[in-house]
Amino acid sequence: MNRKYTVDLADLQRNGETIYVLLSRLMPAFEAGRAREIELGPEASTHSLVLRIVETTPYTSVVEVVPDNTDGWLKGFEMQIRAYHDAKIAEVIRCEKLHRILPKYPYPNSRMLLPDEKAQLHRFVKEWFLHVDQHGRDATPFNWKGSDD
Fold first, then answer.
1. 45, 70, 106, 131, 135 from 91: Cα distances, Å
2. What gap in Å lies between CA 149 and CA 110, rounded to an integer?
3. Which helix (H) or strand (E) holds 127?
4. How far apart are CA 17 and CA 2, in angstroms?
5. Could you give the strand order of the β-sheet that contains 89-95, starting from the edge strand earlier in sequence?
6. Residues 6+ apart with CB under 8 A from 84
7. How far is the C-alpha of 8 from the C-alpha of 134, rounded, in Å?
8. Is the link from the previous residue into 28 a cis peptide, with omega within 30 of 0?
9. DSSP letter assigned to residue 130
10. What pTM, to 2 d.p., does this model score?
11. How far, in Å, CA of 70 to CA of 78, rounded?
12. Cβ neighbours of 121 (radius 10 Å)
């Protein structure tokens, strides 16, 4: 029996709230121009993740997440996350080639996206940020004054 996919809003909201909390830990100040580089892997590793605030408004910020080296195991991880400060929730708004992520996709489709692509992406980002929060370390001192100082 084929059941039609329905969006689990409670799960999507739970994951968004968790992503917001983790993003707030990784990027404590949501002001345009701020950036933070976090190293991952063994001490001698060259793998790192750069978090950069690319847009701010009174109630939201857009954080760009980019791997520092594009030939390693982080290749293809580029994304943008919008943080809604009033609701304390975050959502992935762009991930590699997906520039507008819908809550639900028809299946089958020409891009081979699963019906629950957004939910899976949010679960992945939540788990990834948990890993980065627990195992990542500062590559450079955090610039608390912004990038133009």
1. 29, 23, 21, 18, 23
2. 47
3. helix 117-135
4. 31
5. 89-95, 79-84, 60-67, 48-56, 35-39, 137-138
6. 20, 59, 60, 90, 91
7. 28
8. no
9. H
10. 0.83
11. 9
12. 18
Task: Walk along the chain (149 residues) and give the pLDDT tens digit of each residue.
Answer: 567 778 788 999 999 999 999 999 998 888 888 998 888 877 655 678 889 999 999 999 999 999 876 556 666 678 999 999 999 999 999 987 777 888 888 888 888 877 888 898 999 999 989 988 988 888 765 555 555 54
User: Position of tokens 């709230």?
Assistant: 17
Q: DSSP letters of 66-107?
A: EES-SSSTTTT--EEEEEETTTTEEEEEEETTBSS--S---S
């029996």: which residue's tokens?
A: 1
